[in-house]
Write a structure and sequence with these properties.
This protein has about 650 residues and is mainly alpha-helical. Helix content is about 75%, strand content about 0%. The longest helix has 18 residues.
Length: about 650
């Protein structure tokens, strides 16, 4: 690692956190995997460093048969191997052979992804090695117990086992075991947020590996050096380590190792906006996991790869592939009984449906995701889904319900730990308070985001906060200030290639330009976003952008195009039951016909708008429409009617 790194200033950034155990989150032409080098012969599974001295030939034979079955690596052969090793344990009855057979049982169950059973056998082996004072065996058992705890995400417990193993590895001069243990200690410190200790242990492990032959554990240390470089923002060095690890990993038939390295690279490219590379790497991971032997990759890991890949598709605006992946993953998870991982995919489907404007359907999926996130203690997922649920309620006009869910999300997410989740939550509150007319609360949320520096980053969280600050300004009549926020947010979203956020900003920018009388820019912004929302099937935003384009074209004097867009907006509004948009678009149509002196059609449109305004008790719209109808009667020469409608308007109290 570069000596210029100042470990005292260590701060795990999002690249480091994303790539440990293939965390959740988070084109189709991506190939399966690059051509692999010819694999080296597989080593026999490790037991302890010493060989069995038992004279019991029946047990020794069972052990040999079990090892051959283990090497086949299928689910069926591993289950058969476990049966052989278990029988050998019963025959050995309290010898070194018993301990070695128990170690093999542990490794077999680890391969079968039954980590709790693997740990129990390693622990029993440790007891046997302690009883015969076998230091090498104790070191190996403790190391393997640490590995299981690490894979379970129990890093503090794993660290304890590794730290017991390390002096025993050194005492027996087991260099390979020492390097493995140092790497494990480094991974624990890394995941516990102690970068200085993680770096020191990875470097010590790497220095030992330099004098040893290539193996999978050596590659994993190189991968970890890449992760720690990212965490220190030594980006080029991190990429160098990860690409080296990726090339070396391909001489081994280990899809998990290769997948972890690919995900580290994909997470970096996803975060920096190179979505083509992110999708390519994540497609390779998904295919490698899907094509691996059933026993090698757990369903949970496969589902996490599904989620990571759909995140990249989502950011690229490819909702079709994202939703298809989620649906397939949900089916697979339900069939396998993987409740927690499946619920995470279900919740993320709710997020996508929210962005498609399918709010009622989205709420169903989001509630399922929230329930399981709470049961599993996953605070980030819980907060993210709560925020999405709050936004869905607000978009349907239930502002207080939306605020309630968003405040629950704010209380759930730990401050200063995950800017994207935290940014989504606070941005949601900024927007919904503004929509509900509570400018003070909206400003308080903007100040909270600034206090936590969420607006300073280059990530989706900062985009959302800056954008909603602009939305709040727009709703309070500060269109010029709103545009400044929108432009700032758009620059970041564009750098990230985050199509969802870019088009959300364009819609609001169209409104801001219209309020400033800049109808050319208003039309262009609305047109760009319309193409996106039509593609992803968001009828609400399709309706909104048609209405915006109609207004801009009306003011630009392009009557027929304005009529077409207003009629399209009315069609969507009738389908969605949105009477407010119907009123606005009918009024716009009335103005187009008025400008062309087609007063009959103008009055017909305005009468329909007035009827809807009366149905919804929209006093402001009633008054505005009645006054305009009075103006049209004035223009057509019917002064009596003009006075009648203007008098009606005067009688309406706002």
């Amino acid at each position: 690692m570069n000596k210029q790194i100042n470990s005292k200033n260590f701060e795990i950034n999002k690249f480091g956190l994303m790539v440990g155990l293939v965390l959740m989150t988070i084109c189709l032409s991506g190939q399966i995997l690059a051509q692999k080098a010819k694999p080296k012969p597989k080593p026999k599974p490790k037991t302890a460093p010493t060989q069995t001295n038992s004279k019991n030939s029946a047990a020794d034979k069972l052990l040999d048969e079990g090892i051959k079955l283990f090497e086949q690596g299928t689910k069926e052969s591993l289950e058969a191997a476990a049966s052989k090793f278990d029988s050998a344990v019963r025959i050995y009855q309290g010898s070194e052979g018993t301990a070695n057979a128990l170690m093999l049982l542990g490794r077999t169950y680890k391969k079968l992804n039954d980590l709790q059973t693997a740990f129990r056998h390693y622990n029993n082996a440790l007891v046997e090695y302690q009883s015969i004072n076998n230091t090498e065996g104790k070191a190996a058992a403790l190391n393997n117990m640490g590995g299981v705890m690490r894979d379970l995400g129990k890093f503090s417990e794993a660290l304890g086992y590794y730290q017991q193993s390390l002096p025993l590895m050194r005492q027996t001069n087991n260099k390979k075991g020492e390097a493995q243990t140092l790497n494990g200690i480094g991974e624990c410190y890394f995941n516990l947020g102690n970068g200085q200790q993680a770096l020191q242990n990875f470097q010590q492990a790497d220095s030992i590996w330099q004098s040893l032959d290539s193996n999978e554990d050596k590659v994993r240390t190189t991968y970890n050096l890449g992760r720690i470089a990212f965490a220190y923002n030594e980006i080029q060095q991190g990429l160098n380590y990860l690409n080296k690890a990726l090339n070396e990993s391909r001489q081994f038939d280990n899809p998990i190792l290769e997948g972890d390295i690919l995900e580290a690279l994909a997470a970096y490219y996803n975060a920096t906006g190179d979505l083509t590379k992110a999708i390519d790497y994540r497609r390779q991971i998904f295919n490698a996991y899907s094509n691996a032997k059933a026993s090698l990759v757990s369903v949970t890991r496969i589902l996490l790869s599904v989620n990571n890949l759909q995140v990249s598709y989502y950011r690229a605006g490819d909702f079709q592939n994202a939703l298809q992946l989620l649906d397939n993953g949900i089916r697979r998870g339900e069939q396998a009984g993987e409740i927690e991982s499946t619920a995470f995919l279900i919740g993320n489907k709710g997020v996508l449906l929210t962005d498609q404007g399918k709010y009622e359907e989205a709420m169903k999926y989001l509630n399922q995701g929230i329930t399981v996130a709470r049961q599993s203690g996953n605070k980030y997922s819980e907060a993210y889904f709560l925020a999405s649920l709050g936004i869905a309620y607000a978009e349907t006009g239930e502002y207080q319900e939306g605020i309630n869910y968003l405040n629950q999300a704010l209380q759930t997410v730990p401050a200063g730990t995950e800017p994207e989740t935290e940014g989504k939550v606070i941005a949601g509150l900024i927007a919904v308070y503004a929509m509900a007319g509570d400018k003070n609360k909206s400003n308080q949320m903007i100040q909270l985001a600034m206090t936590r520096n969420i607006d300073k980053g280059v990530n989706a969280g900062s985009v959302m906060v800056i954008y909603t600050a602009g939305l709040s300004a727009l709703m309070s009549g500060q269109a010029q200030q709103a545009l400044q926020y929108f432009n700032q947010a758009f620059l970041i979203a564009n750098k990230l290639n985050h199509e969802v956020e870019k088009n959300r900003i364009l819609v609001s920018a169209a409104d801001a330009y219209a309020k400033l009388g800049d109808y050319q820019n208003s039309f262009q912004s609305a047109q760009k976003s319309h193409d996106f929302y039509k593609k992803i099937g968001n009828d609400w935003m399709d309706m909104k952008t048609h209405s915006q384009m109609g207004e801009a074209l009306l003011n630009l004097g392009q009557s027929q195009q304005a009529i077409d867009n207003f009629n399209s907006a009315i069609g969507f509004a009738q389908k969605l039951g949105d009477k407010e948009t119907q009123i606005l678009s009918l009024f716009g149509l009335g103005m187009v016909y008025r400008n062309s002196q087609d007063y009959a059609n103008s009055l017909q449109c305005l009468t329909q708008a007035l009827n809807l305004a009366e149905e919804t008790d929209d006093k402001d719209s009633q008054k505005f429409v009645l006054n305009e109808m009075g103006n049209i009667y004035e223009k057509s020469g019917d002064k009596k009617k003009a006075k009648e409608f203007r008098d009606k308007a005067k009688k309406i109290k706002n």
